[in-house]
Design a protein that fits this description.
Blueprint: H1 16-29, H2 49-76, H3 85-97, E1 101-103, E2 113-119, E3 125-131, H4 144-164, E4 169-176, H5 184-190, E5 199-201, E6 204-206, E7 216-225, H6 241-256, E8 264-270, E9 283-292, H7 295-316, E10 319-328, H8 335-347, H9 364-370, E11 373-374, E12 377-379, H10 392-397, H11 401-423, H12 425-442
Parallel strand pairs: 3-4, 3-5, 5-11, 6-12
Antiparallel strand pairs: 1-2, 2-4, 7-9, 7-10, 8-9
The chain binds zinc ion (ZN) (2 copies).
Length: 444
Amino acid sequence: MFNWCRSPEAEEPRSAPTCSRLSEKQAFRDESNAQETHLPAYSSCRFGQDETTATITDKIDSLSKELRVLSLDMHDHPEIAWEEKRTHDILVKFMKQHGFKVTPHAYGIETAWEATYQHKEGGRTIGFNSEEDALPKVGHACGHNLIAIGGIAAALGCAEALKKHDLPGKVVLLGTPAEERGGGKIKLIEKGAYKQMDLCLMIHPTPLSGLIPMLAVSEVVVEFFGHGAHAAMAPHEGINALDAAVTTYNAISVMRQQLLPSDRAHAVIYIPENAPVNIIPDYCKMKCAVRSFEYKRLVDLQKRLENCIQAGTISSGCKVKMEWDYTYKDLRNNSALGQEYIDYMKTLGVEVPITTEALGSTDFGNVSYELPALHPMFAIPTGGEGNGNHTPGFTEAARTKAAHEEAIKSAKGMAVAAFRSFIDEGYYKTVREVYEQDKKDRSK
Ligand SMILES: [Zn+2]
Ligand SMILES: [Zn+2]
């Protein structure tokens, strides 16, 4: 038996090196006003944590073989966004078999599910996410099979520790569809799925480990409507929709020169299939996207992109229809949760750097705006350059035993970082303070 940490005031603050490492990221965020933000000190008390950590990691190790089978089953039957029906069913079945209360088709979303485990009354609620979707043609090229089993491992590990050490608390695992396209987590946020949680975590495979920023992104579908005409007999009677798209594309290319290095703009033109060259195209569709390091900057980029679209519309004389799709917000990794993850991963021999170079985007960014959240990237061996996420090489890598082992390690780190909030008031207080401070910073 051991004593749980209940009086953070009495404890020593965490060591200075810890704070300065964490401040690197904060300093980057605050570049504009050159301020460094340090984490408030919190309890360094670890009474009880060694025991719960051992319970969590033993449980995860004991599940590893079963999780490997589940991961391969998912990998061998990839399903794209919103179509993860089989994946939904096998994950729901697995969670039921392991004693969680499961709601299939949760929150009115066909391929979402929720699995919960409550021990005793009260306590905190910690959340994890298991992503489900694959990509068209290349299958699980983003390794969401590893994310799914990582979430399951962490949830089952934490539930086991609540039970064994007789602690009050609740674990919620959400099966989240459509990360690659459609923003499944945004729909789940709207439906209130995250409201019950005090914090939420997920892990993601990439070629390099790290706490890595992710960009805010917004996409717009653009349709130009012109007027068809004979391209030789009466071109003057035509209104050329393809010209509208080409002008828009070129305007975006020009705009790109004046973007910040962290911002991105992309566009593709869907030229009508088998369009005859002797008819002025009366219709053309495009998809355009802008990305930014921070969500608040994205609004400005959206306006600038709309101006590019207007340039194409006005110069061609077309009519235009613009439909903005979902927006993924930038990722706000909670630095207190992050440091706990980093510290634990070090004990497994895994270095997790805090980087400032952004990768892609994720709908988990939106989750990180709602509550304290962490989304560490864990490295899997991919066989070198050209095999990053969304490539056939990564699909292959996400199926290997080595990748599975890395997912298991990362799941342990995620579970340990989350579980401390059950047993250390000072720790959770700091997690919450970091979140509130970030909320203030991002609204400046
Ligand atoms: Zn992806
Ligand atoms: Zn992904």
